[in-house]
Amino acid sequence: MSLSLIAKSISASPTLALNEKAQILRQKGEPVINFSVGEPRSRAPLDSILAAVQILNSGEVRYTPPDGIPDLKKAIIRYTEEFYDRKVEPENIIVSGGAKQAIMVALQSILNPQEEVLYPAPYWVSYPEMAKLCGGIGVPVPPEDGAFYPRIQDIERKVGSYTKAIIINSPNNPSGAVYSEEFIADIVDFCERRDLYLIMDDIYHRLIFDGRKPINPWMYAKKKDENSKMIIINGVSKQYAMTGFRIGWAVANKKLIEAMTNIQSHQSGGPSVVLQRAAVGALNGIQSSVENLRATLENNRNVMVDLLRSMEGAKVFVPDGTFYCFVDFSAYEKSSHKLSQLLVDKVMVLTVPGVEFGMEGFIRLSFAGSMKEIQEGVERIKWAIDPNAPNELYIGDRKLVRDWL
To answer: Are 135 and 124 in contact (CB under 8 A)?
Structure first.
């Protein structure tokens, strides 16, 4: 079969593939624990469900404008003013099928073949593939000090004549690191001075812990007019636990939004009116669900971190936000793919290999599940790889004997 060069170069999303594998194992009745999924377990807000039901009951489920329905744009305008202290107009906004599509359409609008987009490592698994889909080149920027917090000097060293854009994802997937206010101020200033696009992937920005507040990159911008090259990405998937609704958005200058809209109009058209109405309900409705989810995740984080710290060989970074722990297990196994496969095969725990995020030897563990899953999942991991753990383990009525250490 003849495939395009781009098709041959793109691999499947490892996180989505693992989630599918978990569903298949569950359908077979296997007691799988899925630490790979980037998905809160809480229900979508009632206001979002009622809004979706209302439009379904009306029977008026029609095409939508390619850049989003007016009511959702109004809700995003209010949201942007509240959290970014920025007044924008409907022409500054595009609604897409999730934050992922918003980023993809933005990159298609700004990247030429062989131009580069930079992003700190560890990074979300889709950034490199998105750059490839545009004919561009993704350039990871690992901090020289080995920490999860990037430094402006690390970015400066990687920027060259082909650099077109920088993506900043804070709180970060997979590490959970919330980048410092000083770094955000520096990167905004740097991109303005170098005339680079700055894509702020803020999809987790209210799911932060320990009393931290979301950092507003817009407050550091000197270019606050239509010449700004800052692009704010957000959506309802994470903070409202509405992953399956697939509604995200971008806020940027009008010329760029127009180009993004033109592309999206041919790719997919406007997102479903039912799902957009649900997003309106979430943004305009009672907001207590966001804080409830955030508090639950912070408690889950504390439990997972304490359990992981009982493993002498595990180097545990305490995440500042999101719902992920990114743990260095290299003392047990250098290859994150081998370790991840071992955990699936031996104890039916699904994790994401760190190499997919640009960091070998690490494993990403989601703490978005139940407390029981967190406790049992970490117990299984410890039993599978820690020589100091007991030699036997029960999973339900099934007795396992460890014979590979």
So the answer is: no
